[in-house]
Specification:
The chain is of the alpha+beta class. The chain folds into four domains: about 5-95, Phosphorylase Kinase, domain 1 (2-Layer Sandwich); about 95-175 and about 185-300, Transferase(Phosphotransferase) domain 1 (Transferase(Phosphotransferase), domain 1), CATH 1.10.510; about 380-425 and about 475-544, no CATH class; about 430-470. It is built from 16 helices and 16 strands. A hairpin with a 4-residue loop joins strand 14 (about 510-520) and strand 15 (about 525-530). Helix 3 runs antiparallel to helix 5 (about 205-220), helix 3 (about 115-135) runs antiparallel to helix 9 and helix 12 packs antiparallel against helix 13. The two termini are about 25 Å apart. Residues about 175-185, about 320-335, about 345-350, about 355-455, about 455-465 and about 470-475 have low confidence and may be disordered.
């Protein structure tokens, strides 16, 4: 089912991609004269923040800063404006995935990412980061840009093999009007630098440390500093021993261990002094491994990680040829629905724009939105999956259902995920061939010479096929929902309890459903939207 289209000034909003603490991200189409249309991504400030001068100024700072960066490894900004009292930034659409989704797909496959792929991606990110660090004002004065939020969710890898650094929303630069107060921490705590965790002054080397942390996780699928709380995580960033990545992945060469160790060195003097130095070291390492850096090599890994439907869906958005007379862009409205980052589930739209009548039901007033959270460590996840496998086997599920169920469970690789469509065993529709058989048998007992000229047997053929043809079987094919939450919750649909999480392969009719998740013990209650496709399985993993 297509999502309702909404006009937002000169843009038509097609699909909400993600929601953050400051803005929503939308897939949109820019419309111009004589049927001109261009696919773009809009970052729209949340309505509740429009009257907050500090957040508005941060948004304006991001727009000014990002507009001055023109590099192949940084997302390009096309437009900036305001509509219905909400500021927005329009940027290029990137048909690909962020590194958080890349790592989750790797976890679902129960395999590690290729070493060369991880290094090649970080070389691209470091190159774009260095360009931002070197940005100057018109007079040539260095702006001293610090991204401050280098993390897997802010590095995009396109299906064509291009690496893009995104989201300068909390970047610090000398040109910023909004200044961060001393001791204020901004960024994802699991990827901040020691000086950032301590509230000390920052320079470009802080981003180098964060990028080294991302490389560590790409290679090991383990976050080195993540702990049970933000405070414990920050303490680990500052003082916890860092396990050499080769101890978690024995096939890592010693040279790569040394590169990561230097990138994540706590003393600033021992760390790479620029992102360019890190990029050069990694590039030299790849040469020593007889690996030739190329977008084609990166693209081949992405092709193996993500199914064809998802890849082609996003590529169709970027390469679509739109009909100028169509109210809704014809090449976009039939795209697969699950094009958001795999790790996150966008909450209800917050735009002030009035939505059409077909908009899905809004969530109840007493409910809370489900936050986007980061992936959990890989070891506990795999252990939990193994226990679920054993439970399923003990339940005596049928052979085919068991195989599909286990495949779905392996797909849970992080603490939350967007719906991921898994292609099931094809359902073979009944072929309406039986009506042909009596049509052949009827003339056989008639040996009369008039047999060739008699058209009578053909009449039943024309009348009978319409009976089996409009068989309702395909319309009655249900989809399945696999849902897990942390903590556990009771799942309700229209007041009827479906069961407790984890809910595995629960059959539901195709369409959009609003589920209510309740945990009375922890006083938690929230509602989510789930899109079910016929004959397919939708999976969600949420942190309440």
């Amino acid at each position: 089912m297509d999502q309702p289209q909404t006009d937002f000034g000169k843009y038509r909003l097609v699909r909400r991609i993600a929601t953050g603490g400051m803005a929503e991200i939308w897939l949109a189409v820019q419309r111009g004269l004589h049927g001109f249309e261009k696919t773009a991504v809009l970052k729209v400030i949340l309505p509740e923040l429009c009257n907050n001068d500090e957040f508005v100024q941060m948004f304006l700072d991001e727009a000014r800063l990002a507009a001055g960066i023109d590099h192949n490894n940084v997302v390009r900004i096309y437009d900036f404006g305001a509509e219905h009292g909400q500021y927005y930034i329009a940027m290029e659409h990137l048909p690909g995935e962020d590194l958080a989704s890349v790592m989750q797909s790797s976890k679902r496959a129960n395999s590690l990412l290729p070493i060369a792929f991880a290094c090649d991606v970080i070389v691209g990110a470091a190159t774009g980061l260095h360009y931002a660090h070197e940005l100057t004002d018109p007079s040539g004065r260095l702006l001293n840009v610090v991204h401050r939020d280098v993390s897997p969710s802010n590095v995009i890898v396109t299906y064509h093999g291009t690496v893009k650094l995104v989201d300068f929303g909390i970047a610090r630069a000398e040109s910023n009007i909004t200044k961060t107060a001393a001791g204020t921490l901004k960024g994802k705590v699991a990827y901040v630098s020691p000086e950032q965790a301590a509230g000390d002054p920052l320079d470009r080397r802080s981003d180098v440390f964060a990028l080294g942390t991302v490389l560590y996780e790409l290679l090991t699928l383990t976050r080195p500093f993540k702990r049970e709380s933000d405070l414990a995580t920050l303490k680990a960033v500052v003082e916890a021993p860092i396990t050499p990545p080769s101890q978690l992945r024995p096939d890592l060469p010693a040279a790569l261990d040394a590169i990561i160790s230097k990138a994540m060195a706590r003393p600033l003097r021992d760390r790479y002094q620029s992102a360019a130095e890190l990029a050069d070291e990694l590039a030299a390492f790849l040469v020593s491994q007889q690996y030739v850096r190329s977008e084609r090599a990166i693209s081949s890994v992405m092709t193996g990680l993500f199914d064809a439907e998802r890849r082609l869906g996003k590529l169709r958005v970027a390469q679509s040829v739109l009909e100028p007379s169509a109210k809704t862009p014809s090449a976009i409205k039939h795209l697969p629905q699950h094009l958001s980052p795999i790790r996150g589930t966008p909450s209800q739209p917050s735009l002030k724009v009035p939505l059409p009548a077909e908009e899905p039901p809004t969530k109840p007033e007493n409910t809370t939105s489900v936050p986007i959270v980061e992936a959990t460590a890989v070891e506990p996840t795999f252990a939990r999956l193994q226990r679920r496998r054993n439970l399923l086997v003990g339940a005596g599920l049928g052979g085919a259902a068991l195989i599909i169920g286990l495949g779905l469970l392996v797909a849970f690789g992080s603490s939350d995920a967007t719906p991921v469509t898994v292609t099931p065993v094809p359902v073979v529709a009944e072929k309406p061939t039986p009506p042909v058989v009596p049509a052949v048998k009827e003339p056989l007992p008639e040996p009369s010479p008039k047999e060739p000229s008699e058209p009578a047997p053909k009449e039943p053929i024309a009348k009978e096929p319409p009976k089996p043809d409009p068989t309702p079987a395909p319309k009655l094919v249900k989809g399945k929902l696999t849902l897990d939450t942390t903590p556990w919750s009771e799942v309700f649909l229209k007041g009827k309890k479906l069961g407790d999480t984890p809910l595995v392969d629960f059959p539901l009719p195709p369409g959009l459903h609003v589920l209510t998740l309740v945990n009375e013990q922890k006083n938690l209650r929230t509602s989510i939207e789930v899109e079910i496709s016929a004959g397919k399985t939708t999976m969600k993993k949420l942190k309440l």
